[in-house]
Write a structure and sequence with these properties.
Blueprint: H1 2-19, H2 24-38
Protein backbone atom coordinates (compact mmCIF):
# COMPACT_ATOMS: atom_id res chain seq x y z
CA UNK A 1 0.00 0.00 0.00
CA UNK A 2 0.87 3.69 -0.07
CA UNK A 3 2.05 3.82 3.53
CA UNK A 4 4.33 0.82 3.09
CA UNK A 5 5.88 2.39 -0.01
CA UNK A 6 6.62 5.64 1.84
CA UNK A 7 8.13 3.69 4.73
CA UNK A 8 10.34 1.80 2.28
CA UNK A 9 11.52 5.06 0.73
CA UNK A 10 12.26 6.56 4.14
CA UNK A 11 14.19 3.49 5.27
CA UNK A 12 16.20 3.48 2.04
CA UNK A 13 17.09 7.15 2.55
CA UNK A 14 18.11 6.49 6.14
CA UNK A 15 20.24 3.48 5.13
CA UNK A 16 22.05 5.49 2.47
CA UNK A 17 22.60 8.40 4.86
CA UNK A 18 24.06 6.07 7.51
CA UNK A 19 26.26 4.46 4.87
CA UNK A 20 27.55 7.87 3.86
CA UNK A 21 26.54 7.44 0.23
CA UNK A 22 24.73 10.77 0.01
CA UNK A 23 26.36 14.20 0.14
CA UNK A 24 25.03 16.49 2.85
CA UNK A 25 23.15 18.78 0.49
CA UNK A 26 21.29 15.86 -1.08
CA UNK A 27 20.38 14.57 2.38
CA UNK A 28 18.94 17.98 3.22
CA UNK A 29 16.81 17.97 0.08
CA UNK A 30 15.52 14.49 0.86
CA UNK A 31 14.84 15.47 4.47
CA UNK A 32 12.84 18.49 3.32
CA UNK A 33 10.89 16.29 0.88
CA UNK A 34 10.17 13.73 3.58
CA UNK A 35 9.05 16.34 6.10
CA UNK A 36 6.70 17.88 3.54
CA UNK A 37 5.21 14.56 2.45
CA UNK A 38 5.02 12.95 5.87
CA UNK A 39 2.45 15.58 6.88
CA UNK A 40 -0.03 14.19 4.35
CA UNK A 41 -2.65 11.88 5.86
CA UNK A 42 -2.28 8.34 4.65
CA UNK A 43 -5.24 7.00 2.66
CA UNK A 44 -6.96 4.19 4.48
Amino acid sequence: GYKEKIVDIREEILRKRRAGKLPGDTTSVLKDWWQAHSKWPYPT
